[in-house]
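Reviewers of the previous submission asked for a worked example of the structure-prediction workflow described in the proposal, so we include one complete record here. The input consisted solely of the amino acid sequence. No template or homolog information was supplied to the procedure at any stage.
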Amino acid sequence: MGFSVGDRVVCSADNVLGNKPAKQRYGRLFRKELQGVVQGTEGSGRSKKYVVCFDEVATTKAFSTRSLKQLVVLENDEAGPTITSLDEAAFTHNAYSDIDGRLTNDESLHEVDIHENNCSSDVVSSDVVSCHGVKWKVVEGVLEDWRCAPQYGAHILWGNDADELQRTPIDYWKLSFPLQLLPDIVTWTTASLPAGCAKATEEEILAVFGILYSLTGTSEGRRDLWSTEDGLFPAPRFGERYSLPRNRFEVLLRCLSFCPPSEAKGNDKWAPVCRLIDGFNERQVQKIYPGWQLCIDESVSSWRGKDGDFCSDEMPNVTRIDRKPKEVGCEIKNCADADTKVMLQLEIQEGAEIMCTREYVADYKLAGSAQVLRLTKPWHGSGRVISADSAFASVTTALACRKHGLHFTGLVKTATKFYPKSYMDEVEFAELGDDITLKTTVDGHNIMAHAWGDKVRKCFVSTSSFHYYSWKTF
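From that input alone, the workflow returned the following structure tokens.
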């Protein structure tokens, strides 16, 4: 992409003035976009730069193409086209395609990648903001609640189980564990035991689970937990408490299987745990009736095993996420009930090649949107509100949820296609706590963009709204 003499372009203030001078001049808005006019060029080929004059700061400077954005001005923002889908919005205004020109009339304009949506600037006219062809109108807050479904109350579906006053912690554990798999787990574990070992029993398998839970609450070595000699503190006596000798525990733990041995040795490296995860997800749908709000997030199951390059029993896919308490392990996307804090659905991240073949990816071309729809599939059409962070939030996700009978609220950071992020970041607030709301309609669904003035500005996309002032509770 190139520019001609006389073209109006925009560039961030910190690029024009330098980081420190821009902060001194504009404060928190030191990355605001300044308008300039191309006056000429310097160099040629890959070293070609455009000389731009910025009147606001009385500065003339040369920039490469990557540092500049074309300024597009619409002659009439008030009328504009009627937007019936995000695809039509993108096709209607070719000027709003990505700056590097990858998207053209014959290409899909869904979000291709969550990290590649920050290239465009927003065009502002009066109280209308256009972003990739989607027109957002500044509104004085939203006073109505767009949700029509009732606010569900979460509860447990016990069925004909024991009376509530007689339930124990183990009853709640059994509520979520796929007990229908327990006989199969015993069979598969027995098949994996060394020759001459006694067959496993359901009681022993449950004891193994109990010991594994207990191990998470102690820093002592595993061998010491079977000690019977009291010292400064009473001995753990795991053998007596769980009726399982240490040697038997070690053998059962080494041979514990959640799938037939033939599947464990197949091409699917995740087969050893898939039945357990699927069983848990099915059990939660059967036994937990969630409230009106569901939360989508991610977690990491810590991995401290050997590197896969040097052993055959490695973790099939190891993820490193620096911001997590346990940085290295198996990444799991999950869905939880915001009312009871109960985990409802789990999805192991099996690697990019496998995940891109999963349901909804082909429809929306965005991993976060597809993950939200998969994790909430049991509750499609219920009108529940889905809350998620910036790993999942986008206009595409919000619209996808509405098309499947759900509402969505999420924090927008990087997935900014169709979202007026540049405008929201540059709006000047008089004090912390000030906010601004924009509204658009796509496919008949209302979508709201909201910015809240905190120390670090928060930007949200939502299809479900409460009273204007309640937004400040986020």
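The mean pLDDT is 78. We consider this example representative of the routine output the project will generate in years two and three.
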